[in-house]
Amino acid sequence: MKKLNRKVAYMLMTILLMVNCTMMGTVAAAKAVNGDSRSRPVSVAGGSGHGVAAWDDGSVTAWGYNKSGQIGDGTSIHQLVPKQVAGLTDIIQVAAGNHTSFALDKNGDVWAWGEYYSPYVSGDPLLPFQKRGGLTKLEGLKDVASLAISTHGSVALHKDGTATIWNETFDPNDPTKMTVKYFPIKGVTNAQNIVVAGHEALILGRDGSVGMITVYNSFYDRYRLESEFREVKPLVASSITGIASYWYDVFLLDKNGTVLQWNVNTKQKAPVAVKGLKDIKEIKTGYNRLFMLKKDGTVWQWNYNNPAAKPFQVKGLTGITALWGSKGHTGYAINKDGQLLAWGEEQYQGSGSLNEHDGKPVLVQPPLSWTVNGQEISFYSSSAIVKGKLYVPYTSVFKALGIKVKRGQSNPDPKHGNQGFPVWSFSYGGNTVSIKSSDPAVVLVNGKVTREDSSIPFLANTSMFPLELITSKLGIPMSWNKTTGEVILGTIP
């Protein structure tokens, strides 16, 4: 009997294991089908012309205007397609100033790059005038729970509900020497969020209250020392679930879905309700604009600096689950499929190509990885995506592929007022593809004119060349996975 019971128990256990494995396999297959294995953004921020995003695998990508090194790739070269920021892991939040970027990791440590944090590096043989420093760890910030970046001062909210404000200071005898100074904000306790507007810090408490404290000493033209802070003044007693600010304007999200507005630089005694706004779930700000996520998954925008402007729905944004703002004209959102979208009137939105200032949402592209003849390569310059096609500068993959690039000049063209145009030639394996950069461009293969529709756009301060066209005409294999960003060129050993 005992042997029989053991045999039955063994059979039951085997069946359960088989069912469990089958279920796990089914779930894994479902994830693969639904694309759930793809990384999703957990935090996004924008400066005056760049974007930065943290993903659920702990990595960080950045894109856009890069004159101050805010992309974090060690250069001052603008990037149309996002690049992964090396040296960052386990990141849970990103933030941005006008020309700076910040990242917070799960341990509560903070990293900064761009502008003052990434100074110029002279003497680099590849980038003699465009090399920038790397990441800077803000050693004065520990156990940080969230970041709020402002033109008037940046604030770190600690895990225990206290807060620290910091700013960059410079040696009067040597302006290139930058020091970060930290000022604990006395009187801030039990805070869940904090923003800076003008000389004031607005503190959202965990009980839904909002208080205000002056953080800047206008008499001495510096931030207040810890001994100079006064008591936190109450602004709203309760019911607030969200807070956002830009410059002197502060916006408060009430739990009933309405929005309150207050300007710290006026004699306005209390926040007032914004007419026409209801069912709001989340609020963020940009340059004189308020971005709002409604409970129905739609996104609305209010350019509040214009007295005649009214809130409007952003077309093309539905099924949205999270929202982020910037220091410029760009907003960011993630949809139910985990895709990151950007919209606004700025050029660099991570779509791979300069937008047309039309405000329409665009998909933020994944970073590109490059494999040439089985070897991974990287290059400083930006790549581009024009009309769904991949473009690269000549200082990119051509040398690694063995393609010889040459620049010449065409004969005077009577169709264009006897004007001559630059002609770029790409030679490989006895074949040559030439592109005359007229309008429209003329493509020649081994000296014969073709009917190919192409161009040589000037993007990110350089000429861009149609990679797919060139490699196909030269007989070089190429594949581009638009979901993962993996580009494979040439043969695989």
TrEMBL record:
It comes from Paenibacillus solani. This is Chromosome condensation regulator RCC1. Keywords: Signal. Residues 1-32 form the signal peptide. It holds the Pfam family Cu_amine_oxidN1. InterPro entries: Cu_amine_oxidase-like_N, Mao_N_sf, Ran_GTPase-activating, RCC1/BLIP-II, Reg_chr_condens. Gene3D superfamilies: Regulator of chromosome condensation 1/beta-lactamase-inhibitor protein II (2.130.10.30). Residues 371-488 form the Copper amine oxidase-like N-terminal domain.
